[in-house]
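Let's practice the habit of predicting before peeking. Look at the sequence and jot down your guess about where helices and strands might fall. Then scroll down.
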Amino acid sequence: MPTLRTLPLACCALLACATTDTPAPVADTPREYLYLWTGAADSTEADFLAVLDITDDSTGNGRLVTTTPVPGRGNGPHHTEHDMPADRRLFANGFRSGQSFVFDLTDPVQPRIDAQFGDVDGYAHPHSFLRLPNGNVLGTFQMRHDSAGMTPGGLVELTPTGERVRSASANAPGLDPATRVYSAGVVPALDRIVTTTTDMDGDSEASRQLQLWRLSDLTLLHTFALPDGPRGGEGLYTAEPRVLRDGRSILVSTFSCGLYLLDGLESDAPSGRLVASFPEKEDAYCAIPVIAGDYYLVTVPAWSAVVSLDISDPAAPREVSRVAFGPDDVPHWIALSPDQRRVVVTGYEGMQHRVELLTFDPSTGALARNERFRDDGAASPGVRFDNKRWPHGSSVKGVPHGAVFGR
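Done guessing? Here is the structure:
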């Protein structure tokens, strides 16, 4: 069960951003940046957004540019959006505190906090944020406070500055009141949204349910369950829906390493069929995926690896590449660069204070560790977050989680 790891997170007043002492790059070199939503590893310091220069030259490759600390105590930095939005206003949740932040990245090297919000219309603890065709943001909120106590959460449409547009409850007749809305896939071509139902706190029974909504008015249409496969348990802990390149099909992953292709999204009887399951063992654990054309990239903690699957036939995925990390590494978050040639990975345990970049070949699906992305003088790839003096005046160990490439 993928619970949010306990982090002794920081608090302090909002501090000014600052740049590092590293010499600035040549002015006319186009720069590329990576943004890391980072928790502080003790309760006396601020959580922050870190900016790394990942330009592939002698002055980039992981150079720390700046940090922007956030207010509040124990925010628990968790998910950001997976792609940098066109308006460069990045949503990021502090799952533990229930506070979310909107970072204005119009100036890519001087982020500022554009907005902050907590509960919205009684809905609490958003987990995932997705852009809608109209430019607004869809938030999946795990739970809701109402007269009945704590009930299943729902969907909230927000403006790019975090203001409520509309909301809808996931609570349906017969639904377990402990059901929690986890993540979503938006299918404008079918006027549909698919949501998953895993409890981030791990207090509820393992859920195999999905919910189907109408995008145009946020009407909840159906709640249905994923079947198991030959191993048993593949449908438990529904995780991440991902829309395929045809704009109409969805693959849904589970944290139990099942991969399901959904059928009948336009009908009164939607369903999911198991098309892949890995690793083939009872305690299999998979995490976050991204779609890159005809390839499905997913972090697989059970293998300490990132795996590339060919999904040109989504009913028959096949592995084409794999990158393994150290045996104590637990890769979790993954995001893809705009040119689909680099992948960022963060995680837990051995990866708790480290960020890695992979290279990706979009024509073959091949993955490899980016050997050039590393701290100066380091013996192995990756940039560490437990050995830095941060520009905002702290040397606390950082715990990066959500990560996104700049545009």
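How did you do? The chain has a mean pLDDT of 91.
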